Amino acid sequence: MELIEIKTLQEAPAPVIRVGAVEFGEAEIARETPFHPAASLAEAQLQAARALVVRELLSQRAAELGLPPVVDAEGQENDEAMAVLLERELAVPEPDEAACRRFFETHRQRFSAPSRLRVRHILLAAAPDDPRARDAQYRLGQKLLRQLGEAPERFTELAQRYSACPSKGEGGELGWLGEGQTVAELDRALQHLPEGLHERPLASRYGWHIISIDERQEARPLPYEQVAERVRHSLREQATRRALRHYLLALEEAIGVEGLRLDGDADGSLMQ
């Protein structure tokens, strides 16, 4: 992989970064960069540099407090030691009932039961790079649909005879499916289908699917009492991120960092 010199990249970290008396140069940043995928190499290097700074700030603070090292001799993070440090150092307020209810009312959609479909299918297998097989299986699918149009009760029989999916043993029953629970191209189509037998085979990377939507349940709001713990967890997580950000920025100020500023991404660098 060809490395671009950091000093030539817009918004990239400086060639040398200091955290207290510890220095990081291009070599350390280059080793860390593959662990931070981003839209550009410059952004990946910047995220890597921030991660190194955060790790070193926490390491120096743990050493100052006489706590176990948060990074071992091989440079790997010690999650248990990190948890001990943060539990001691972070003051995270527990959300009260009033705050939880306000958050719930403002984010009702987040705490709704998602829509779901009860689906049966017959998979007519054909590889995406085999046009002859896909054409033959599509024509078979049209034939099966004509038969089902005349006798819908034959779906179980035809699934057991023709389907290449393990669900053939249950007559093609897939049960209740929520969004994202099947292959992406089929999932997108299912979200827009009405109840009943779909009029044509649907394509996926596995072949063609004869689809029957037996029941649809739309998304519906849930009462606060049913999601209270989820609401409390969401608020606690938000408060933890805020506390973590302020903590890291305070360490940056106290220990001293040259060549890079954490700014608003302090907590994000640790969460990665």
3D architecture notes:
With about 270 residues, this protein is α+β, with helices and mostly antiparallel strands. It has two domains: about 5-95 and about 230-270, no CATH class; about 115-220, Chitinase A, domain 3, CATH 3.10.50. Helices cover about 45% and strands about 15% of the residues. It is built from nine helices and ten strands. The protein has helices at about 25-30, 40-65, 80-90, 95-105, 130-150, 155-160, 185-190, 225-255, 265-270; strands at about 15-20, 20-25, 110-115, 115-125, 175-180, 195, 200-205, 205-215, 220, 255-260. Strands 4, 5, 6, 7 and 8 form a five-stranded antiparallel sheet that branches. Helix 4 crosses helix 8 (about 225-255). The chain is elongated and about 80 Å long. It starts with 16 loop residues before the first strand and ends with a helix. Mean pLDDT is about 90; it is low at about 1-10. It comes from Serpens gallinarum.
